[in-house]
Amino acid sequence: MKTFEYARPSTVAEAVALLEQHGPDAELLAGGTDLVIEMRNAWKVPKVVIDLKRIDELRPAIRENGQWISISSTTVMTDIAEDARIQKYFPALVESAVVVGSVQIRARATLAGNICNGSPAADTAPPLLIYRAVVAIAGPAGRHKIPIDDFIVGPGKVALGRGELVTGIELPIPRQPIGAAYTRLTRRRGTDLASITLCCSVEEGGVARIAYGSVGPRAVLVEDSSGVLADPGAPDERKSEILDEVFADASPSLRSMRASPDYRRAMLRVLGARALQTAIDRFGDAS
Ligand SMILES: Cc1cc2nc3c(=O)[nH]c(=O)nc-3n(C[C@H](O)[C@H](O)[C@H](O)COP(=O)(O)OP(=O)(O)OC[C@H]3O[C@@H](n4cnc5c(N)ncnc54)[C@H](O)[C@@H]3O)c2cc1C
């Protein structure tokens, strides 16, 4: 690993100033589970590493204000999976957090880092899309929030400008019953990145939403308002036709060592139908 400067700011303003000063020569360090590996492999060679863990405002915290749950940017997967409010309102996010890496990785890996790294295979991206998460950003021009769907751009790319960092991720508490389920496909049990990530929800009015990743440059969200996917009694052939449309945007890599494009496309349909059924069942329980 190349030598680098290590900075440990104590306020968001200091971190923003450092980021703005060093631009692409700087990298933020949260849990380091992506960054350290990327630096060791010389995929990233920052001159300055800015550690976020001593910034009081960003310390691990999950807060509820009656309408939103906000998750600070140094909150790790273990804390998210164990939080009773996340379990109650966002069970599919818990299902994604508990499959990230291993016990050791989950104790270090942050939710914000999982999204900011920009991996198309990030496990938490589909549930965050399904639950309409919003990303809170601080930068030289002040603070703003953007929907997760606009924040995720492509491989290694998120909507952060020079000097900007994520302070937290916010989730609107569902006001209506919602059934949601997360699932993924890996080559083996245990620690592995996913060949497919997929989350489904069924909501009031027959709306079904499906978000899927690891089969293209970024996780995508598709909404079906026809009522067919959400209808437990709809004919399988009709559901199958709509699922074909839902997965039309999948463009799995030809060069991936994890799974062939044909296998991924076939398994998308299988996982989609299964997760949809679970979401329908959970919606029935919640209504
Ligand atoms: C063995 C192993 C297994 C893994 N398995 C999985 C898996 O199954 N599923 C999965 O999705 N991931 C997996 N990962 C990847 C990784 O654990 C996650 O992506 C993790 O959530 C990243 O969070 P972090 O806090 O460690 O980020 P870091 O490594 O600290 O940072 C990652 C990137 O995000 C940027 N960043 C971090 N925080 C912020 C912020 N607040 N604002 C702006 N930019 C920021 C950093 O600059 C860096 O570029 C695995 C990693 C390892 C090493």
List the keywords.
alpha+beta; Uridine Diphospho-n-acetylenolpyruvylglucosamine Reductase, domain 2; Uridine Diphospho-n-acetylenolpyruvylglucosamine Reductase, domain 3; Enolase-like, domain 1; five-stranded antiparallel beta sheet; binds flavin-adenine dinucleotide
Task: Give your account of this protein's structure.
- The protein has 287 residues and is an alpha+beta fold.
- The chain has three domains: 5-51, Uridine Diphospho-n-acetylenolpyruvylglucosamine Reductase, domain 2, CATH 3.30.43; 60-172, Uridine Diphospho-n-acetylenolpyruvylglucosamine Reductase, domain 3, CATH 3.30.465.10; 178-286, 2-Layer Sandwich (Enolase-like, domain 1), CATH 3.30.390.50.
- Helices cover 32% and strands 25% of the residues.
- The longest helix has 26 residues, at 261-286.
- The protein is globular, with a radius of gyration of 19 Å.
- The structure holds flavin-adenine dinucleotide.
- Flavin-adenine dinucleotide binds at residues 27-35, 37, 52, 73, 99-101, 105, 108-110, 112-114, 116-117, 122-123, 160, 165-166, 191, 193.
Distance between the termini: 54 Å
Specify Rg, calculated over alpha carbons.
Answer: 19 Å
**What general outline do the C-alpha atoms trace?**
globular
How many structural domains?
3
Main structural class: alpha+beta
Bound molecules: flavin-adenine dinucleotide
- H/E series: EHEHEEEHHHHHHEEHEEEEEEEHH
Kindly state the number of beta strands: 14
Largest sheet: 5 strands, antiparallel
Beta-strand share of residues: 25-35%
Top-tier CATH class of the largest domain: Alpha Beta
Number of helical segments with 4 or more residues:
11
